[in-house]
Design a protein that fits this description.
365 residues, alpha/beta, 56% helix
Length: 365
Amino acid sequence: MTTGALSSQRGAWLGQLWCTASSQGALGLAGEVCQRQPRPTSRMPREVHRRLRRGSWVSRLASSALSLSASDWMAPRSSARRSPACSPAGQSLHQRLTHHLERLTPNEQRIARFLLAHQDELALYNAAELSRLTHVSKATVSRLFRRLGYQDFREARDQARSLRHAGVPVVSSTPTPDHHQRHYEQECRNLRQALAALDMLDMEALGRTLANAERLQIIGFRNAYPLALHLRQQLLQLRGQVAVLPQPGQSLGEEVARLSANDAVVIFAMRRRPQGLARLLGWLGQAPCTVLLVCDDSLSEIPAGIEHVLRCPLDSVSAFDSYAAAMSQINLLATRLLHDDLVAGRSQIRRVTDTFESLEELGDG
């Protein structure tokens, strides 16, 4: 008999068992099966017969029959084994806890409420520590995370750790006495990486292209928008035709549709990027203009056609990303453009300064 035929007969026979269980009760079915000790027939393969003779298999069948429907019995094995409490993989731990909270056991609820109050600290614990802090067994901890849809506690902890890398503000611990020193050391590492990234660029060719562009469009979203504003502010002291996109309340299509080979775009793409940014980067990669992409390491896929990529670290020992290295890169980039045409740059700086004085816009500071 082939494997397919055997599976088909086994499914049909289990369906008959379910019908009996529905009318007599699963426990009664278990006793009846044990008493009958059926012999192998053409309708009952030897494999099924051997399993029926094992008391443990019959016990499992009896207890499962109380909770499974007929469709569950007839469904493929892989479908029947899915956990009814499994949560979608895309949900955060907080979403899963709040969704399942009322259906958890008292001990599981104790863990869940602790995690909801100390979620930012999950990355610091292991399963044994969480068990000790909540006064429940390690088995209960493991059971809770499986109920929430994780393979184990480690998968949930890895998800919590990945949030910080994605830019989510996460308080990893209470600031220690050496917090400022650790902050300073991290900033130094960021600056070293940022300067090394600048050295990898062909600054001579890039600087010449940006300086000679008829129009220079600077694009930034969310936390990257202040970076775009700051670069524009520096470059306006050196040249004209510098704009920041998108304008408040406006779309990008009208602005970028006019880009030509004589234009240049600087786009900041820091983590926690808006959903449509990947499509915009792909479009700019096909546009005739020169593009400089400034991004952190979380952006792994760079579309073809974007020739210049400047990486900028945002790592911080605090809850929030640090943009100090990005500001330093902007400073050095603007300085390079100034020196590419120093005479014209100095002339523009004088005009801007004279205009400030005429308009009395600035104070004495």
